[in-house]
Amino acid sequence: MHRIFQEQPEILSPVFGVLGIAFPEKAAVYAIGTDVTEARPLARHIDTVLRIGPSDGEDFLLAVEAQERRDTKKESSWPYYISYLQAKYGLPVLLLVACRDRATTKWATGPFSCGTRGWIAQMSYPLVVGPDNLPVITDPRTAAEKPAMAVFSALAHANSPHIEAILDALGRALAGMDWNAAS
Questions:
Q1: I need a labelling partner for 24 at 20 to 30 A (CA). Which of 30, 55, 62, 111 fits?
Q2: How far apart are alpha carbons 20 and 131 in whole angstroms?
Protein backbone atom coordinates (compact mmCIF):
# COMPACT_ATOMS: atom_id res chain seq x y z
CA MET A 1 0.00 0.00 0.00
CA HIS A 2 2.88 2.41 0.51
CA ARG A 3 4.42 2.14 -2.98
CA ILE A 4 1.50 3.91 -4.61
CA PHE A 5 2.64 7.10 -2.88
CA GLN A 6 6.08 6.72 -4.51
CA GLU A 7 4.74 5.86 -7.94
CA GLN A 8 1.62 8.08 -8.01
CA PRO A 9 2.29 11.01 -5.65
CA GLU A 10 -0.70 12.92 -7.10
CA ILE A 11 -2.93 10.86 -4.77
CA LEU A 12 -1.43 12.69 -1.79
CA SER A 13 -3.78 15.64 -2.27
CA PRO A 14 -7.03 13.65 -2.11
CA VAL A 15 -5.70 11.43 0.68
CA PHE A 16 -4.78 14.46 2.77
CA GLY A 17 -8.24 15.87 1.92
CA VAL A 18 -9.87 12.79 3.44
CA LEU A 19 -7.88 13.54 6.61
CA GLY A 20 -9.00 17.16 6.59
CA ILE A 21 -5.51 18.51 5.88
CA ALA A 22 -4.73 20.81 2.96
CA PHE A 23 -1.91 19.49 0.78
CA PRO A 24 0.11 22.15 -1.07
CA GLU A 25 -1.17 22.65 -4.63
CA LYS A 26 2.31 23.06 -6.06
CA ALA A 27 4.66 20.59 -4.41
CA ALA A 28 7.62 18.64 -5.71
CA VAL A 29 7.57 15.11 -4.31
CA TYR A 30 10.70 12.97 -4.27
CA ALA A 31 11.18 9.51 -2.82
CA ILE A 32 14.20 9.41 -0.56
CA GLY A 33 16.04 6.54 1.09
CA THR A 34 13.95 4.54 3.52
CA ASP A 35 16.71 2.89 5.54
CA VAL A 36 16.80 4.54 8.96
CA THR A 37 19.54 2.32 10.30
CA GLU A 38 22.37 4.35 11.72
CA ALA A 39 25.45 2.94 9.99
CA ARG A 40 27.78 5.12 12.00
CA PRO A 41 26.89 5.19 15.67
CA LEU A 42 25.62 8.54 16.84
CA ALA A 43 26.38 9.11 20.52
CA ARG A 44 23.27 10.06 22.45
CA HIS A 45 23.20 10.08 26.23
CA ILE A 46 20.30 10.58 28.57
CA ASP A 47 21.44 12.00 31.89
CA THR A 48 19.56 9.39 33.97
CA VAL A 49 17.05 6.63 33.19
CA LEU A 50 15.10 4.97 35.98
CA ARG A 51 12.69 2.04 35.83
CA ILE A 52 9.84 2.70 38.24
CA GLY A 53 7.82 -0.27 39.50
CA PRO A 54 4.81 1.12 41.38
CA SER A 55 2.97 -1.29 43.69
CA ASP A 56 -0.36 -0.15 42.25
CA GLY A 57 0.25 -0.34 38.52
CA GLU A 58 2.49 -1.01 35.58
CA ASP A 59 6.19 -0.26 35.44
CA PHE A 60 7.36 2.79 33.52
CA LEU A 61 10.63 4.51 32.68
CA LEU A 62 11.61 7.96 33.84
CA ALA A 63 14.24 9.75 31.75
CA VAL A 64 15.77 12.64 33.69
CA GLU A 65 17.62 15.50 32.03
CA ALA A 66 19.38 18.39 33.80
CA GLN A 67 19.05 21.50 31.66
CA GLU A 68 21.12 24.60 32.37
CA ARG A 69 19.96 26.71 29.41
CA ARG A 70 17.74 26.66 26.35
CA ASP A 71 19.07 24.19 23.78
CA THR A 72 16.97 23.87 20.63
CA LYS A 73 18.67 20.52 19.82
CA LYS A 74 16.78 19.06 22.81
CA GLU A 75 13.49 19.80 21.05
CA SER A 76 14.25 16.84 18.76
CA SER A 77 16.52 14.73 21.00
CA TRP A 78 14.04 14.52 23.88
CA PRO A 79 11.28 12.97 21.69
CA TYR A 80 13.95 10.63 20.28
CA TYR A 81 14.91 9.51 23.80
CA ILE A 82 11.27 8.84 24.67
CA SER A 83 10.62 6.88 21.46
CA TYR A 84 13.87 4.93 21.71
CA LEU A 85 13.31 3.92 25.34
CA GLN A 86 9.71 2.92 24.66
CA ALA A 87 10.74 0.82 21.65
CA LYS A 88 13.67 -0.80 23.49
CA TYR A 89 11.94 -1.62 26.77
CA GLY A 90 8.27 -1.78 25.75
CA LEU A 91 7.29 0.45 28.67
CA PRO A 92 5.66 3.87 28.94
CA VAL A 93 8.21 6.69 29.28
CA LEU A 94 8.06 10.02 31.07
CA LEU A 95 10.65 12.78 30.69
CA LEU A 96 11.58 14.90 33.72
CA VAL A 97 13.68 18.02 33.12
CA ALA A 98 15.37 19.73 36.08
CA CYS A 99 16.28 23.41 35.62
CA ARG A 100 17.95 26.16 37.66
CA ASP A 101 16.43 29.27 36.14
CA ARG A 102 12.98 30.47 35.18
CA ALA A 103 13.69 31.09 31.50
CA THR A 104 14.99 27.56 30.96
CA THR A 105 12.12 26.13 32.99
CA LYS A 106 9.56 27.98 30.88
CA TRP A 107 11.17 26.86 27.62
CA ALA A 108 11.65 23.23 28.74
CA THR A 109 7.96 22.90 29.54
CA GLY A 110 7.29 22.83 25.79
CA PRO A 111 5.32 21.33 24.27
CA PHE A 112 7.63 20.28 21.46
CA SER A 113 5.94 19.17 18.28
CA CYS A 114 6.91 17.43 15.09
CA GLY A 115 4.58 18.13 12.22
CA THR A 116 3.67 20.56 9.51
CA ARG A 117 0.77 22.59 8.18
CA GLY A 118 -1.25 22.32 11.36
CA TRP A 119 -0.99 18.55 11.64
CA ILE A 120 1.03 17.14 14.52
CA ALA A 121 2.65 13.71 14.16
CA GLN A 122 4.27 13.71 17.58
CA MET A 123 4.06 15.96 20.63
CA SER A 124 6.28 15.90 23.72
CA TYR A 125 5.29 17.37 27.06
CA PRO A 126 8.20 17.13 29.51
CA LEU A 127 7.60 17.26 33.24
CA VAL A 128 9.70 20.20 34.42
CA VAL A 129 10.95 21.18 37.88
CA GLY A 130 12.79 24.37 38.66
CA PRO A 131 12.80 27.45 40.84
CA ASP A 132 9.13 28.21 40.15
CA ASN A 133 7.74 24.94 41.48
CA LEU A 134 10.39 23.58 43.87
CA PRO A 135 10.19 24.69 47.48
CA VAL A 136 12.78 27.00 48.98
CA ILE A 137 13.86 25.12 52.11
CA THR A 138 15.25 27.57 54.65
CA ASP A 139 14.10 25.80 57.82
CA PRO A 140 16.79 23.54 59.35
CA ARG A 141 14.15 21.19 60.79
CA THR A 142 12.57 20.67 57.37
CA ALA A 143 16.03 20.21 55.85
CA ALA A 144 16.85 17.58 58.51
CA GLU A 145 13.58 15.72 57.87
CA LYS A 146 14.06 15.80 54.08
CA PRO A 147 17.81 16.07 53.43
CA ALA A 148 17.66 14.92 49.80
CA MET A 149 14.94 17.47 49.02
CA ALA A 150 16.94 20.16 50.83
CA VAL A 151 19.98 19.41 48.67
CA PHE A 152 17.81 19.44 45.53
CA SER A 153 16.30 22.76 46.65
CA ALA A 154 19.80 24.20 47.00
CA LEU A 155 20.72 22.98 43.50
CA ALA A 156 17.53 24.30 41.91
CA HIS A 157 17.76 27.65 43.68
CA ALA A 158 21.52 28.12 43.23
CA ASN A 159 20.88 31.43 41.45
CA SER A 160 18.22 32.56 43.91
CA PRO A 161 18.62 35.47 46.32
CA HIS A 162 17.62 32.93 49.03
CA ILE A 163 20.62 30.65 48.39
CA GLU A 164 22.46 31.71 51.57
CA ALA A 165 19.44 30.89 53.75
CA ILE A 166 18.95 27.58 51.93
CA LEU A 167 22.60 26.61 52.41
CA ASP A 168 22.54 27.71 56.04
CA ALA A 169 19.50 25.50 56.75
CA LEU A 170 21.11 22.61 54.89
CA GLY A 171 24.40 23.05 56.78
CA ARG A 172 22.63 23.12 60.15
CA ALA A 173 20.61 20.03 59.23
CA LEU A 174 23.67 18.09 58.10
CA ALA A 175 25.65 19.13 61.19
CA GLY A 176 22.92 17.76 63.43
CA MET A 177 22.58 14.40 61.67
CA ASP A 178 23.60 11.12 63.28
CA TRP A 179 25.75 9.70 60.48
CA ASN A 180 26.11 6.29 62.17
CA ALA A 181 22.34 5.89 62.21
CA ALA A 182 22.12 6.91 58.56
CA SER A 183 24.44 4.12 57.41
A1: 111
A2: 42
